[in-house]
Amino acid sequence: MALTLVWLRDDLRIADNPALHAAAERGDVVVCYVLDEVSEGIRPLGGASRWWLHNSLSSLRSAFEDQGIPLVLRSGPAADVIPRLIEESGADAVFWNRRYVLAERNVDAALKGSLSDEGYQVHSFQANLLFEPWEVTTGSGSPYKVFTPFWRACRNRPAPREPLDGPTVLRGPNVDSEDLDEWRLLPDTFDWAGGLRQTWTPGELTAQALLDRFVTGTVDGYADARQLPDVEGTSRLSPHLRFGEISPFQVWHSARAASTSATASDLAIFTQELGWREFCWQLLYHQPRLATENYRPQFDAFPWQQPDSDELDAWQYGRTGFPLIDAGMRQLWHTGWMHNRVRMAVGSFLVKNMMVDWRVGEQWFWDTLVDADPANNAANWQWVAGSGADAAPYFRIFNPVTQSKKFDPDGGYLRRWIPELRSAHKVHEPWTDLPAGYPPPLLDLKVSRERALNAYQDLRQD
Q1: What is the pLDDT of residue 218?
Q2: Buried b / exposed e across 63-89, counting CB within 10 Å, b at 16+?
Q3: What's the pTM value of the predicted model, to 2 decimals?
Q4: Is the same domain home to 280 and 342?
Q5: Closest alpha carbon to 29 in 71, 76, 61, 81
Q6: Shared-domain flag, residues 456 and 311
Q7: Are residues 234 and 365 in the same domain?
Q8: d(Cα 364, Cα 360) in Å, to the nearest integer?
Q9: Which residues form the Photolyase/cryptochrome alpha/beta domain (predicted)?
Q10: Is 191 domain-assigned?
C-alpha cells in the first residue's frame, strides 16, 4: 500500500485540504506539522499567533485521533525534519499545500528538488488562495499595483473550484511525535492570554460554525454593519483563515450560496474583502520584503520621527487620550483582534499624527494580532502609511474624533474598552471635562496633521 507523508503548514484543517485529500485517495497517510523557526528567512511567530497555533494544533490533533491517526509534531529546520520523517515512516511520497512567502518557497523548492532526485513523489497543491499570484497579471504580464483592476481580472477568470470533502477514514502507521506543550507556545512568564481564551476557540469546527452563522445571518446588512465597531457585523473569520482552519474556497462558495437571502451589495463587499486578501498576497509574492521595505522607494526619504518610549507605550497600551485609538489598542491587547475600521484609525494616528515609521506598527501588530499574516499585516500598514501599492492618499489622515462620532455615535465601543469613560458626558472628547484616571491628549490633532501633510507634500515634490 502506498504511504504518503502530508506536511501541514498554514492549512490546519481536514476538510478542503487538497494535499490530504489526494494522499488519502492514494492510500495510507502520515500527517505532520513542523515548527520551523530556524530556517533562513523564516519569521518567528508573534506571541498571539503562537497562542493560537498551540490551540489550533491541539484541536486538529484531536480531530485526527477521531479518524484513527495521530498528528505528528516535529520541530527544527524542515530541510532536516521532512527527510527524517520519510525514513522513519517508510513514506514513498510527500504532499503539501503551497506557501507564498519567499523564504518558505525556497525551503519547499529545495526539498522538492532533493526528494525528487532521490525517487520520491513530491506534489504541491493550491489550497489557501483562490488565485495563484503568478496567474493574475496585467496585459503586459506584470503584477497589478491597484486593487480594483486586480479584482476585476480575478472575477473574469474561471470561478474558484468547489471545496473538497474531508476524508471520512484515514489509515497510517504510528510515528513518534514531540509533545506540543514542550514547544512552549503559550505564555510562560505571566499569563496575558486570558482575554484571548475568553474571545476565541481556535480550530476547524469553530471556523465552520462561524462561517455558517455569518452566511445565514450576519452577511445580510454587512455593507453597513461592518463599519460599526460596537456591532457584531463582521465574520470574525480572519484568524481562522490565517491558520487555514477554513479555506477561502469554503468561504467563497458559502457566501455565494447565501445569495438568496443577502443583498447583492452585501455579498459583493464581503467577497471583495476576500479579494483584498488575495491582492495582499500577490503583493508579497512579487515584493518579498514587504514587511521591511517601502513598496514605493521614494518613501525611503520620509522624515519619520523617533518616538520616546513613553509616547510609544501610550499608543501601544491605549493611553493616548484619544478614545477611539485607546479603545482599539486595548481591544487588541485583550482579544488579539481589532475592528478593521479602528485598525485604520490607529494606524493613521501612529504614522501620520505621531510620524512613527509604519514598520514599528507592523511589528507590534505582528506580535499582538491573532490574525497577523505576512501579507495582510505588511500590505495594510503600507496602505495606511501611503508607501504601499494602491495606498491611501497622502492627505487622508483619519481624525479619531470624527471617526468615533460617525461610526460609534453612542460611544458604546469606547465605553466598553475604556472603563474610565463609562460615565463621561463627552465620551468622544473627554478632555473638555477630563475623567479621573484618563490621560490628556498625547498631541494636538491639527498641528500634527499639518506636520504630516507638509512632510508628505515635500516628499511628492522631491
Answers
A1: 82
A2: bbeebebbbbbbebebbebbbebbeeb
A3: 0.97
A4: no
A5: 71
A6: yes
A7: no
A8: 6
A9: 2-130
A10: no
The residues annotated with a catalytic role in the active site are: 273, 276, 304, 340, 358, 381
Judge whether 174 lies within some domain.
no
Is residue 428 within 8 A of residue 404, CB to CB? The reply is yes
**Angstrom distance (rounded) from CA 80 to CA 266:** 47
pLDDT confidence of residue 242? 98
Domain presence at residue 171: no
Domain with 343, as residue range(s), is: 297-461
- Last residue in a domain, options 83, 107, 127: 127
* pLDDT value of position 261: 63
Which residue from 316, 321, 309 is spatially nearest to 347, judged by alpha carbons?
A: 316
Q: Are residues 24 and 53 in the same domain?
A: yes
Q: Does residue 168 lie in a domain region?
A: no
Mean pLDDT of successive 10-residue stretches along the chain, which has 462 residues = 95 98 97 96 97 98 96 98 98 98 98 98 98 95 96 96 94 97 94 97 98 89 94 96 98 85 82 97 97 95 94 98 98 98 98 98 98 97 95 88 98 98 95 94 97 91 66
Domain holding 434: CATH number? 1.10.579.10
What is the CA 186 to chain-centroid distance, rounded? 19
